[in-house]
Write a structure and sequence with these properties.
Layout: E1 5-8, E2 11-14, H1 49-59, E3 66-69, H2 79-92, E4 97-102, H3 106-110, H4 115-121, E5 124-128, H5 134-141, H6 149-163, E6 167-172, H7 177-190, E7 193-197
Helix pairs in contact: 1-2, 4-6
Length: 203
């Protein structure tokens, strides 16, 4: 059985889809079938909202202080399920803090502006910057929107900053120090915070 709710280093995570428009060179999915306490994060069949809600009920979110939507896919690739399941958790526990880990390509994926709705639902949003230029971003992420993804991701970030008080952009520590510094400057230009993620730790 594929895990929808799983834990990693004491944190609670939700894996709601395996779909993703990227195939990042450093993606943790390439390292194994699961992370943390999960046994398996690959779906044989994409879960519907009823299956996701059952996993939420089985975990008992009433006692959880925070949770992150981040699994073996891009959460906004299952946009309607993402919105509905996040609202469902909030209905169970209004005090829970929800974070969305995303590649920032939701507007391209869903062919509509999504930052405002996501920002009003999630307490924090973490967006993968990955590289300082469109060319390097495309090379690292190997996304399906070549030439468009980088600018769309930056626009999405700026829109999130308008509506959400806690937005950060991340890079993985496999890029050069020079590219890391350039990425930091780009991040700061959007109004988001900058964070470096560890490839080895997968976080």
């Amino acid at each position: 059985m594929t895990d929808i709710v799983y834990t990693l280093e004491g944190g609670v995570y939700l894996n709601i889809t395996n779909k993703c428009p990227c195939n990042c060179a450093f993606c943790i999915r390439s390292k194994g079938d699961a992370v943390g306490e999960a046994k398996r994060l690959w779906f044989d069949e994409e879960p519907d909202i009823d299956r996701i809600k059952k996993a939420i009920d089985d975990f008992d979110f009433s006692k959880v202080s925070s949770a992150v939507f981040c699994g073996y896919g891009e959460p906004t690739s299952a946009y309607n399920n993402l919105i509905e399941s996040a609202r469902y958790i909030k209905s169970i526990n209004p005090d829970i803090k929800l974070r969305l880990n995303t590649n920032g390509l939701s507007d391209l994926i869903n062919k509509k502006p999504t930052a405002k709705e996501l920002s009003e639902l999630f307490d924090s949003i973490s967006i993968s910057l990955n590289g300082p230029t469109s060319e390097k971003y495309d090379k690292i992420t190997r996304n399906i929107y070549k030439g468009k993804a980088f600018d769309a991701m930056l626009h999405f970030t700026r829109e999130c900053v308008k509506y959400c008080n806690n937005v950060c952009m991340t890079v993985v520590d496999v890029i050069s120090k020079e590219d890391m510094e350039k990425s930091r400057q780009i991040c700061e230009s959007t109004g988001a915070r900058f964070r470096v993620r560890s490839f080895e730790r997968g976080r």
